[in-house]
Amino acid sequence: MKSMLKYSLVALAVVGLAACNQEQKEAPAAKTELKTDVQKQGYGIGASVGRYVAQHVKEQQSLGFDVDKNAIVAGFKESLDGKSAMTDEEIKSTLEALDKVVGEKRAAKVKEVADKNLADGKAYLEKNKAKEGVVTTESGLQYEVLQAGEGDKPKAEDTVKVKYKGMLIDGTVFDSTEKNGGEPIEFPLNRVIAGWTEGLQLMSKGAKYRFVIPSALAYGDRDMGDVIPANSTLVFEVELLDFKAPEAAPAASK
C-alpha cells in the first residue's frame, strides 16, 4: 500500500505530461446527486484530484504534449479497484522519464519568454524615455510627474501609504488598490522592489507619478507565476497619500 501511494502521488505530480489533441464532443453528463455525507466526501476527494490533474493537463497542453485522457481515467479507476496494467516499477520509470522531458521543455519555454520580455522591455524603455516629461535616473528607473505634491519626501526606512495600479508594458493590469477593495495600503518603503524604494523617495505627499521600472529593479529573472513573467518591465501609477518615520524602539527598562 505504501509503495502504491508513493507512485500515485508521483503520477499526480506529472500526470499532465500528456495533452489531448483529440477534441471529443460528448453529451453533457447528468448532474451527480449528492444526498449523503459519504457521497459528498467521496465526490470531494475525486473533485480535488480532478482539479489538480486538470491544471497539469492544461499546462502540458500549452507545452505541446499529447495526452490520452481515457488512459488517465482508466488508470485511476483500475488503481482504485486495486488493479493495474502496469507494475509499480513501470509506472515509476515511465513517469520519471516523462517528468524529465517536460521539465526540459518547460525550462526552454520559460527562457524563451524571459528573453522576449527582456528585449521588449528594453525597446519600451528606449521609446518611453524620449517622451516629454519623462526623467530617467542613473539606475535606469523612469518617472513622469502626473500630479505634483508638496513638502518633504519619504526616506527608505519610512512607512508609506499609497494607492497604485501596476501594469505590464502591454497594458495588462496585474494588481491595484482598486482590485483589492479600493483601500490604500501601507508598507515600509525598504521592503519592496528597488524601483519602488527609489521612486517613492522622489515624491512629496499628494504627488502622483508614473514609473516605468526595468526588470532589474523589479523581479528580475524570477517568474511570479501567471501574474508577472520573468524579466518583465513594469509600469506603475502611484499616488503618495502619506508617510511616517518608523517608531523608535522602546527604551530598555532599568
What does it look like?
The protein is an alpha+beta fold. It has a domain at 115-244: Chitinase A, domain 3. The chain is 39% helix and 17% strand. The chain contains 5 helices and 7 strands. It has helices at residues 2-14, 37-62, 69-80, 88-128, 194-200, and strands at residues 134-136, 142-147, 159-168, 173-176, 185-188, 208-213, 234-244. Strands 1, 2, 3, 4, 5, 6 and 7 form a 7-stranded antiparallel sheet that branches. Strand 1 (134-136) and strand 2 (142-147) form a beta hairpin. Helix 1 (2-14) runs parallel beside helix 4. The longest helix has 41 residues, at 88-128. The protein is elongated.
Index terms:
disordered N terminus, single chain, 254 residues, 7 strands, alpha+beta, seven-stranded antiparallel beta sheet, Chitinase A, domain 3, elongated, rotamase
Q: How is the topology of this model organized?
A:
Blueprint: H1 2-14, H2 37-62, H3 69-80, H4 88-128, E1 134-136, E2 142-147, E3 159-168, E4 173-176, E5 185-188, H5 194-200, E6 208-213, E7 234-244
Antiparallel strand pairs: 1-2, 2-6, 3-4, 3-5, 3-7, 6-7
Helix pairs in contact: 1-4
